[in-house]
Design brief:
heterodimer; A: alpha/beta; FAD/NAD(P)-binding domain; D-Amino Acid Oxidase, Chain A, domain 2; 2 domains; eight-stranded mixed beta sheet; globular; B: mainly beta; four-stranded antiparallel beta sheet
Chain lengths: 416, 87
Amino acid sequence: MRYSGFKVLTEGFSGNRGWTRAWREPEPKAEYDIVIIGGGGHGLSTAYYLARNHGLRNIAVLEKGYLGGGNVGRNTTIVRANYFLPGNQEFYSHSLKLWEGLEAELNYNVMHSQRGLINLFHSDGQRDAFARRGNAMISQGDDAELLDRAAVRRLLPYLDFDNARFPVQGGLLHRRGGTARHDAVAWGYARGADRLGVDLIQNCEVTGIDTAGGRVTGVQTTRGAIRARKVGIVVAGRSGQVAAMAGMRLPVESHVLQAFVTEGLKPAIDHVISFGMGHFYISQSDKGGLVFGGDLDFYASYAARGNLPMVEHVMEAGMTLMPMIGRARVLRSWGGIMDMTPDGSPIIDRTPVEGLFIDCGWNYGGFKAVPASGWCMAHLMATGEPHEVARRFRLDRFATGHLLDEEGTGSQHNLH
Amino acid sequence: MRLTCPLCGPRDRREFYYYGAADYLDRPAADAAPEAWDAYLHLRDNIAGPVRDLWYHDQGCGSWLVVDRDTVSHEMLSVRAVAEDRA
């Protein structure tokens, strides 16, 4: 079924009885050409682009829970292309362009809202760094504007500009940055992949990866063995466990990152605001809730919840930046499991096992990467060669020293 | 989350710095193969369940600590000084 405004209208007049399920619920077949492990944003977009860009049809996505039940439903929905390093720049630039056409492409309203992202700065040194970053973004073909204090004040009059420790001196505005509806991205790709014949198999946990003579031959699952010529591991925080099934140790450590949302309020915050020095960022959802977060809890964790010290820290940072939010009541908080790499950048690459591919290491920046990650992983799995914009996301770059340390914080998993 | 420091007793998590997996205690020989150094610095078992970590009592006695901990439940199983752990 094709979705349209006209369809909404006609269904509205006929009691909404004509809507059909957005995707099938097939039984797993005994064999596929390609199996994708993980039915989150990246896994679903990989399956979609394998079918859409490469004409492949005999594909299954295996999800241990329900589609989109992991990090794609547990993030703060920010979409941006404001990276600095060659390797990251072209990838996120490609991703943002895919976002800009995503709703038409998927025939699905992902509520992509380019409301503008503002990174605040507080010192001369920070201004220089942001000016340099902005120039790099413009060189890449994306947009950036350096705002002085007065310009930030016009856009964000409610900030505390005269904080004694971090007075706001200006900001870097990325107008094409913004947010999207997180679940809808997973659902849109799921529906799109299903319509192209991909089998989306839920409640199907992979328990083993079968290999013979250094080649992948299939997977063992809670719903039986499935043979496959190629297998892609796209499981974010659980990458360590799934890779271990193929005898691999990854340069990944899983950490918990918390986020928070308040009760719904009238529109107050029109942009995405990032207060890096306070480890705080915030936007307002279309439903009205203030969505905000901060840093990792900074210890390895698989608990999808964090601890109170970081809750307190995030609240303090928010109050420091914009005291007006102090009366808003926090509705809920949650934690996502972040697959942290030592340099803070992702991995889309082959593995030592022939036919086995991996897409992981998204740290806390995976949501905006969903379209390009799937695009590039599909290219890699279909052609055997890395996509041009993801060619530096190599699994062996830590061994060879070709790090992509965007933050310049050093080669340790918990520093990014 | 609280850690029971062997010198200071039970203290809030905020007093401690998490350095990483206890892999950092098994430093390869200076002339070890590059693969050994890659494994030491970067590769991790990344277990969901009981793990061994290296922590530092940053805002306390300054001890380096080996912590047995569950990454799923956040339960602290044991905290020992590195020196004691190696003895």
